[in-house]
Design goal:
Hypothetical Protein Ychn, Chain: A, alpha/beta, 233 residues
Length: 233
């Protein structure tokens, strides 16, 4: 076999190899593009709403996000304990500070009344005591103050009051839907209109709290903003 024939065969092998490499590269690129396209089609991207923007604003510059949900009288107290334990554990075991956390406690369903100040507890304590299942300390009398601001262990919150946690940066949300239901129930037993009572309750929320359309909705939206959800009962 002469030299020219050998050179021709070598060139053919080279070109075939280049073609195979190019084909492989094309297939790989196509597969990657298809994968990226499929991922973009299947990866969930939540819709943003202006009404929820506060969740991101609260968390700005903070390294951790947590949402503690409560729906019962006992659960409201537990939620305060959970919030305290989160902050305490972060400080003692990680060397962090309370300001590292965007931490929200939710009062909804039967814990909703914890989101109101003492003035309305004084007025509607009979109803709130039945709703939460809690009575005055060491008696069966109705509560006349928000029990989660009583600095005693009788309600299971171990001294973790709303005001104490608020001072550490914890923020609270109150269920508006439950507030509407409470207003209607109170109207049937007081002679006031449901709308008048609703306006009174909305004007009587605890400091550094906000009403959300529904507590369960806020819990789900918080996860869409990267908050870890914890149920306190």
């Amino acid at each position: 076999m002469n030299k020219n024939t050998t050179d021709i065969k070598a060139r053919r092998r080279f070109l075939t190899g280049v073609g195979m490499l190019a084909t492989g590269a094309t297939l790989t690129a196509s597969a990657q593009a298809a994968g990226s396209h499929n991922e973009s089609q299947t990866r969930f991207i939540p819709t943003r709403h202006e009404k929820d923007a506060w969740l991101e604003e609260l968390a700005a510059g903070r390294g951790h996000r947590a949402f503690v949900d409560s729906s019962t009288g006992a659960g409201g107290a537990t939620a305060l304990n959970y919030a305290n334990n989160i902050l305490l554990g972060h400080r003692e075991e990680y060397g962090g500070s309370d300001s590292d956390y965007a931490l929200i406690v939710c009062f909804r369903h039967r814990s909703t009344a914890f989101g109101y100040v003492d003035a309305v507890w004084e007025k509607y304590g009979e109803f709130f005591s039945r709703s939460t299942g809690l009575t005055a300390p060491d008696s069966e009398d109705a509560l006349r103050t928000n029990p989660l601001n009583i600095d005693q262990a009788v309600y299971g919150n171990r001294g973790n009051t709303i005001d104490a946690l608020r001072a550490r940066g914890v923020r609270f949300v109150v269920c508006n839907k439950a507030t509407r239901s409470i207003s209607s129930a109170l109207a049937r037993s007081t002679g006031y209109t449901a709308e008048a009572i609703y306006k009174e309750l909305v004007a009587s929320n605890i400091a550094d709290s906000r009403f959300v359309p529904a507590g369960v909705l806020a819990a789900t939206r918080s996860q869409e903003y990267g908050y870890s959800l914890l149920s306190a009962g």
